Amino acid sequence: MAPLRFAANLDWLFTERPALPERLEAAARAGFRAAEVPGPYGWCPTLLRGAADRAGLDLVLINTPPGDEDKGEKGLGAVPGCQAAFREGLALAVKYAKTLGCPRIHLMAGRLPAGTEQAAMALEMEATFIENLRYAADILAQEDMTGLLEPMNSRITDPRYFLTTPHQAAAILEKVGRPNLRLQLDIFHCQIMDGNLTQNLEMYFPLIGHIQVGQVPGRHEPDSPGEVNFPYLFQLLESLGYEGYVGCEYTPQGDKQHMHLLPEACWDRRAGPPAAGGVPCPTQSRGRQLLWGQVWVQGSAPPGRGSKTASLQLWARAVTWPSLPWSGWEHSIWALGPC
């Protein structure tokens, strides 16, 4: 099974740093190897690419421009009469994505026009969206890029957003019929609108091009208290063979440096200690936080303390090295589940 790969959403994480290049650096220091930059447009793309390269981060997702936010716009893809503005925004997004080396663009659907109702506008907005998506797919295909459709919940986040469920998005993708358009499934939105996460992930897995996570109801870290069993979902995604990124799109609680991920080498084997095929983590894993993981740890006493060894197997919601009973020993760790 391929290891899951996490990306920091820099509209939500490390926001105590006002400058986007500083957030890229902070994400890398926290252990991320990839980042989502939904709104890069206030920055020079060459500057951002340089900052990402210096930090060792892949930039894996941007959004199309939202439109005029002062007028309440949140994307233009499905908004009738805004086709020209959508195409202009798409051209800008492609320009940025090329410079950033970013292969995915979230094609934002947008909100119902002011003073209208969903029932009255549904058919016209869907037709507009399909027209714009076909145009976008052809443009993106020339650049070997993928366009993504993200349903957003209308119960809490945005009552006027047009695209609200994976079922609606899947139906539109089928009508558009372009292989480089895929579903961006945010677990937070999906749980609020529909629940039934296992069946939805399995049903729509062939369409999924990107996943995002956030606990329900607070939209905090996956290991914070809430409705969603993320250890189970992460294992499910691995078992399904998911090879894309998992975007961390939530407001962190407490310490802003919360997402200290172990090196991804830890995810490569699940069988246990070396005799069973486990892969030890590199030394730099010490002091990092284990999130959501079932781990097998072996400690060997340092010189002068005898030849005693010890091992521990646990399901770790969050555990740091100093809390383990063999502080100062040499450690090896094998991930049996997501870390």
Automatic annotation (TrEMBL):
The keyword Cell inner membrane does not apply. It holds the Pfam family AP_endonuc_2. Transmembrane segments: none annotated. Belongs to the hyi family. Its EC number is 5.3.1.22. Keywords: Isomerase. Signal peptide: none annotated. It catalyses: 3-hydroxypyruvate = 2-hydroxy-3-oxopropanoate. It comes from the Eukaryota. Residues 24-252 form the Xylose isomerase-like TIM barrel domain. GO terms for molecular function: hydroxypyruvate isomerase activity. PANTHER family: HYDROXYPYRUVATE ISOMERASE-RELATED, ISOMERASE. This is Putative hydroxypyruvate isomerase. Catalyzes the reversible isomerization between hydroxypyruvate and 2-hydroxy-3-oxopropanoate (also termed tartronate semialdehyde). One of its GO terms (biological process) is glyoxylate metabolic process.
